[in-house]
Structure formats: structure tokens, C-alpha cells
Specification:
mainly alpha; 8 helices
């Protein structure tokens, strides 16, 4: 059992449960402020992009160079790491293509309306978010195994963007059924796929984790997935809340906080 296995599983579980927190917000206050959500999603994107380019990708290149035996292998390591990075982005693109999901601003609906279309929206959103949470869970889990401080940063970023996802599940479900318990349960189930993704990552990687190319490949794939999530999901969703400058202020703040934390912990 790796040294940080249980810590990695705990970080991933907490990040996933943030979806349930969003579900609670969805049935209590219906919709957090647009500026807050725009800033929060931008902050999350900034953290993920900064981690991907400053920590994960350089680590992958360094480890690939070591695996190749050094001696001028930096050009090959650079090429391999970037190819794997793009492969991670393409993998996420195909997941999004096969199972699209939206979690932009929710319209206000009459509670208990019994609207079947709203019920279907809630179910489909929960299923889509649940499937998208699998690679996020894997990313948090593997990053924590390698470096707990890195895993914590990723877990916080993912938790932030899981909150509006929970809102997106709970609001239509509550509006359609009038049941707070059912709305919360669907948001919780969508979030629990995050630790499920961590366990799957553990089952797949732990038997081969000592191989010299496994961790750099995983780092580069995770970086690609997180960049794709940020550019395809978080930034557009942040902008959709109608707050013009909050997303970019959030993204800059997320990068600055991440840079400061890495500098202090270096």
C-alpha cells in the first residue's frame, strides 16, 4: 500500500462531497450570486492551469528523461510528455462528446411543479457530472500519491467547481419533485463518483506504479485533463453567469495563490 493512499482517498472524497454541498445550496438558496460563482470557477480554472503547466508537465518531462537514461534525452522526454498531455486532452474531449453536460445558470422554477422535463434535466445532469467526475477523482488521487501538497491544491480546485455542479443537479430535481431529499441524494450520488474514480485509478495503477514510465505518463495525462476541464468547462461556465470581469480576476487570483503556495513550500 503506497504511503499516502488513505490521504489520497480522503482528499478525493472531500472534493466529491462538494457536489453535495452544492446540492444543499440548490435546495436552500436556489442560486448563489453570479459574481461569486464566476469568480470561484475562474479561481478553480487558474489553479488547475497553473498546476498543469508549472508542476505536472515539468515533472512528467523530468521523469521521462530519467526513464530514458538521461544523456541528451531531454528532447525526447519533452516530445513524449507533450504527446501524452494532448492525449489526455483528447480523452476528456471524447468523454465530453459522448456524455455532454451543462451546469450554467439555472432558471428559477416553481417548486413541486411536477415538470417531467425538469426531472429529466436533473437526472441527465447528475449522470453527466458523475461520469465527468471519474477522471477528476483519478487526478486528485494520483497527484496526492506523488505529492500531498499538490493533491490538496487539486482537491480544493475541484471542490470549488463541484459546488455549482451540485446546484445544477439539485435545482431542476427539486423544482420537478418538490423533494429536498431526492434533490440532495442525486447531487450526492453525482459527487460520489469522484472517490469511485480514485479507487479505479488505484486498482489500475498500484500494481504497476513502480514502472519508471507510469507516473510521468499519469502526470501528463492528468495535466491534459485538467487543462481541458478548465478551458472547455470552467471558463465558459464562469462567463455564463454574466459577470464580465469576475472570471478573469478569479483565474489570476487562483494562479497567484498557487504560485505563492508553491514558492512558500519550495
Amino acid at each position: 500500500m503506497p504511503e499516502h493512499f488513505w490521504l489520497a482517498l480522503a482528499f478525493t472524497t472531500v472534493a466529491g462531497l462538494a457536489t453535495a454541498v452544492g446540492g444543499l445550496l440548490g435546495i436552500i438558496i436556489k442560486r448563489p450570486g453570479a459574481r461569486f460563482l464566476g469568480f470561484a470557477l475562474g479561481f478553480s480554472a487558474g489553479v488547475m492551469i497553473h498546476i498543469s503547466f508549472v508542476e505536472l508537465l515539468p515533472e512528467a518531462m523530468e521523469d521521462f528523461e530519467t526513464a530514458l537514461g538521461g544523456n541528451g534525452g531531454e528532447h525526447a522526454a519533452f516530445a513524449i510528455a507533450h504527446l501524452v498531455l494532448f492525449a489526455g486532452m483528447i480523452c476528456y474531449f471524447f468523454i465530453d462528446l459522448l456524455v455532454p453536460h451543462e451546469f450554467g445558470p439555472q432558471e428559477d422554477h416553481a417548486v413541486g411543479a411536477g415538470d417531467s422535463s425538469l426531472h429529466r434535466t436533473g437526472v441527465l445532469t447528475a449522470m453527466g457530472i458523475g461520469i465527468h467526475n471519474f477522471p477528476e477523482g483519478m487526478a486528485t488521487f494520483v497527484a496526492t500519491l506523488a505529492d500531498p501538497r499538490l493533491g490538496l491544491a487539486i482537491a480544493v480546485a475541484i471542490a470549488i467547481h463541484n459546488i455549482p455542479e451540485g446546484v445544477a443537479v439539485a435545482v431542476p430535481m427539486y423544482s420537478a419533485t418538490g423533494s429536498r431529499a431526492r434533490a440532495f441524494l442525486w447531487a450526492l450520488v453525482a459527487g460520489l463518483t469522484e472517490p469511485a474514480g480514485a479507487l479505479i485509478a488505484g486498482l489500475l495503477l498500484l500494481p504497476v506504479i513502480q514502472h519508471p514510465v507510469v507516473m510521468p505518463t499519469t502526470f501528463a495525462v492528468i495535466a491534459g485533463i485538467m487543462i481541458a476541464i478548465s478551458l472547455d468547462e470552467l471558463v465558459p461556465s464562469a462567463r455564463s453567469y454574466g459577470s464580465e470581469h469576475a472570471p478573469i480576476i478569479g483565474a489570476i487570483s487562483g494562479m497567484a495563490v498557487m504560485a505563492l503556495s508553491l514558492w512558500l513550500l519550495a
